[in-house]
Known about the structure:
In chain A, about 15% of the residues lie in helices and about 45% in strands. Chain A is mainly beta.
Amino acid sequence: xxxxxxxxxxxxxxxxxxxxxxxxxxxxxxxxxxxxxxxxxxxxxxxxxxxxxxxxxxxxxxxxxxxxxxxxxxxxxxxxxxxxxxxxxxxxxxxxxxxxxxxxxxxxxxxxxxxxxxxxxxxxxxxxxxxxxxxxxxxxxxxxxxxxxxxxxxxxxxxxxxxxxxxxxxxxxxxxxxxxxxxxxxxxxxxxxxxxxxxxxxxxxxx
Amino acid sequence: xxxxxxxxxxxxxxxxxxxxxxxxxxxxxxxxxxxxxxxxxxxxxxxxxxxxxxxxxxxxxxxxxxxxxxxxxxxxxxxxxxxxxxxxxxxxxxxxxxxxxxxxxxxxxx
Lengths: 207, 110
């Protein structure tokens, strides 16, 4: 092959690879918006709280959404409900045991049943391993993904930075007994099911 | 606390004695009633919250770019039903305590 042609072909391949390559989105949000909300039905009213110390990375390529993968972690100690005494109980050894199990994590390796639901929006099932209180279970989490191209810089008030945002939303339910949280106990006071609702944003600044 | 001597009929008195209440009973009764009223008023004034008491109140906000709804916490106390019921029970106990150990009027000798 002509060396000139080879150089052009190589440059072209490099550019195409760079554009098409999946980007890594960092979910440690500089604006502190990321949180996972948990809801447990209870005697007087549902106990609703948040876990706010979210970190993690997801690789995502809008051209191949199914190949997305990543890991999201939440610091157990960041779990909070509006009542301080309840928060203390929640973080204690009988419930989350935040002192011993510092993180709650979800690691997924692929997205299944990916469907486009709009411009830059997809619904899918994230298949992966959810770990809580040291117990890991395979789960399928229904998610919707929104790819906001060029919105990273705008969001941090530096439009010149460029970059993209990836917003992941979802709701799923776990049984606390599956993760060794008071199995079979106090079910008349606090429901056995925990509903987790999340809306997380990850940023990928322009390289 | 020893009870104050209550008026007893005199042996020579021809009329039955008038019922009187010891001062500490009146004070405690008032304190119990005041506590119940106070607790109810605080609970009502702070929004009639019918759930658990809150030390931090969640406030919903929306991120304008991503439209993510997120929660921040405001440090303030909102009394709930546990506060109301606890206060009413405490008031009732104080109020009821004034009826304990109360002697009935003694009848005069015949």
